[in-house]
Amino acid sequence: MAPPRRAQPSRPLLVLGLLTLVLTVWAFWPGLEHTPRLGLDLRGGTQVILQPRPVQADAQITDDQLNQAVNIIRARVDGLGVAESDVSLQGSGNNAAIVVSIPGVNEDRIVELVGRTALLDFRPVEDILDPAAVSASASPSASATPSGSAPAATASPAPSPAASTTPAPAASTTPAPAASPSPSASAGSDAPTIVQSASNDAAFQQRLGELNCTDPRVYAGGSPDDPALWLGTCMKDGSAKFNLQPAFIRGTNVTDASAGIAQGGAGWQVNLSFDSEGAAKLAEVSGKLVGLPSPQNQFAIVLDGVVQSAPYFSSQIIGGQAQITGSFTAQEAQDLAQILKYGALPVTLDVASVENVTPTIGDDQLKGGIIAGILGLILVAAYLLLYYRALGTVAVLSLVVAAWLTYVLFVILGRTVGFTLTLAGVAGAIVAIGITADSFVVYFERIRDEIRDGRTLRQAVDTGWERAKRTILAADFVSLLAAVVLYVVSVGSVRGFAFTLGLTTLIDIAVAFLFSRPLVVVFSRSRWMQRGGPWTGLSPQRLGVAAKSPPGSRRSPAAQVVDAQQHEATAAAAVAAGATDEGDENR
Amino acid sequence: MSRLRELGHRLYAGQIEYDFVGRRRTWYVVSSVILVIAILGLVVRGGLNLGIEFRGGAQFQLPPAATCSIEQARDTAEGAGASQAIVTEVGSGGLRVQTQPLTPEQSNATRDALAAACGLQPSDIAVQLIGPTWGSQITAKALQGLVIFLILVAIFMTIYFELRMAIAGLVALAHDLVITIGIYALVGFEVTPATVIGVLTILGFSLYDTVVVFDKVKENTKGFAGQSRATYGQLANLAVNQTLVRSINTSVIALLPVAAILFVGAGLLGAGTLKDLSLALFVGMAAGTYSSLFVATPLLVQLKERQPEVKAQARRVAARGASRPDRPASAVAVGGESAPTAAAGQPAAGSTARPAGQRNQPRKQSRSRRGGGGQR
């Protein structure tokens, strides 16, 4: 390490000033939220943590299955139409947890809704209708979709060279339900998303007619269907409405599904294999349906109450190997394969915990957190001012800057990466006040030590920083390490705490280097500070420099050794600095 | 304050030096006694008082507006199908009902019954259901995090300091953890996820404190083998004394916000995350400050004193003990690793007494004690 250079305080201060300005403008951009996103424990709501469990006791859960499960649950939650609901996956494999947070409402339905295992089934199509809701009087019978637009399901004898591919215009297969921007918070929509009945009777027909498949909340699905009943539901993009017979195959009958290039080289296809039970059913049903007029030669692949695809049978499928062809893109084929495969390897979702906080309790906790934070800041500021006097003002200003940066970053992160501030996070931020303040203590104590060694204030500020810097970085690194490890392995509230701790540690480093340090340099250039009056907190008399003991008197050998080392360093610094201080001390 | 500052100076200058290292047996005994009590507490009390997050169960929180008594609430909950209902009063008149694990249906029934009996709307009652396996999962995850963190910290401290410092730091950390857990077992405070967070924070904080003290030890003992005035132990002890004021300040500053949380959490909100968290922090930070001063450094010295070069140097110091102690150090080989050859062996003639403000006369061939890149 070279001897300390004269610091130029203006540049870092400018950098931090600009940074703060940019972040502040970003956080308070008109028309957006200006407060951090609050977690459920601070504003009320329901949080459900689900643990996926493989069906076979010793099986591994794959990321694909987890993502699929999250997508399904997200679709269900979006169906509630509550703004700012959140479904997130934490962890991976058999230790994963799916955390569902729904603010503001105490929905009994939520637990039931998200805890149900997704169902995949195959149903013969009875009729395909126009997606819009029709008034009760009109009879819903108009067949809307010519079969030409449907993909085809074909038998594929194991090494299948010949396969009847049926070109079809766009098989509408959008990727798994993305979180659609939900309308403003209402306690869920009352509109049904599916209709079911034991028979295809008039009442069922009428309810089916009233089903509005043009409403995103309706075609988002999320209502698992009973496979034994008739089902009226929507295509997953809302392009059509289906009247479906009871299921003939369950998702569990699918043993494998994959996407591949279609034999003709024209686009992609989905290959399916069934277990023996599924194969037998498929042979029977396909034999029956293949000769029927459209749309009754079609079957619907229904996931969680929504039709994912409705291919028609172009031949009887014997042997349990089938392929679905159509003009799929690679993405569409993969998505469909994934859905089919997920149905084949269902993950049971156990409700691990349900937490519901009423808005009043949330409000109290938020108030408590804010009061504790402000109280903590005031106490720390008072202590720093009392103990460090003028230097203490630097520390207090730094704390204010750090607190402000923390706040605007909470706002920005809430908006960009969906960071939600929980009570644990608030506590983490309050605890961080101590860690931030400690950086100043390390630095200031170093400056005092240097002054005790007989340096001038300006030297002390520089050499002290060189030494304090390493300590601050090492200690902050440990703190950051703890935060990162906790964040990676934990779930739920511990995670929120770890994130806040990590963020505030980074802010601490930035503020210490870009604000506190240059500000101390600015202070040290003032005549008043250099005179070292009692209020500077750095008075050499008070620090006992003047009372430097005569050599050897009551001083331990260790102190003398260290003193000699210090002395050595001072001399070196003086040489290295070349120019002495006298020139710019304005004497 | 100014008295503390004066003390700070005298500590720094070595005029007053408390023998942390030399009295290590005392500290070990004190720590051992506390640890034994803590472990006994764990055994006798049959482990910790785990909250429902770890046991699994259901919890209903009734706001202060609830009009029913504790007995009424318990009877209502048990009448609605919840078994083993425990009702406690929290904060300013609210009630907390804890039961064995319930299904969502049972919990809805219980909630509605409680609302009816206590003059509340069902939506006023906060409900928490924890499955029986979830708690063990959280615990396993926290332990996993702890182990990973300790391994990483050990690696970091070994690189930044040395292996012995890493060992001493981690032992001090374990010491803090056991004491905190023991106190929790003895007093019977409830352990919730917030408590776990608190304990994990202590880890960071305890190490943080130890890192700062060790940094000073490292600085003081740099190149100690090149002189024979003071032993490693003496130099390390001086480091503890020199950072004593900082340790006190840090602890006070860290505890102030925690005290604020504790005050607000326990005083205004009753039971809850804030109280659990700050309680664990309060207990742990006190232990952490103690251990970085009284356990970590003495232990480090003990470990170091087994090293042959440290032993040899201590013998040289002892041999020299007869010589006059008031002469300034005459052969402090500083810069440990790589002193520039031009200056090698040049004695650093530095008088220890110099009037304040008078600068040193720069010598032609001085060495920077902090020379070389071996610092990082």
Structural account:
Chain A has about 575 residues and is an alpha+beta fold. Helix content of chain A is about 45%, strand content about 15%. Chain A has 14 helices and 16 strands. The longest helix of chain A is centred in the middle third of the chain and has 58 residues, at about 360-415. Chain B is an alpha+beta fold. In chain B, the strands form 2 sheets. In chain B, strands 3-4-2-5 form a 4-stranded antiparallel β-sheet. The longest helix of chain B is centred in the last third of the chain and has 32 residues, at about 275-305. The two termini of chain B are about 35 Å apart. Chains A and B meet through helix 4, strand 16, helix 9, helix 10 and helix 11 of A and helix 1, helix 5, strand 5, helix 6 and helix 8 of B. Strand 16 of chain A pairs antiparallel with strand 5 of chain B, so a sheet runs across the interface.
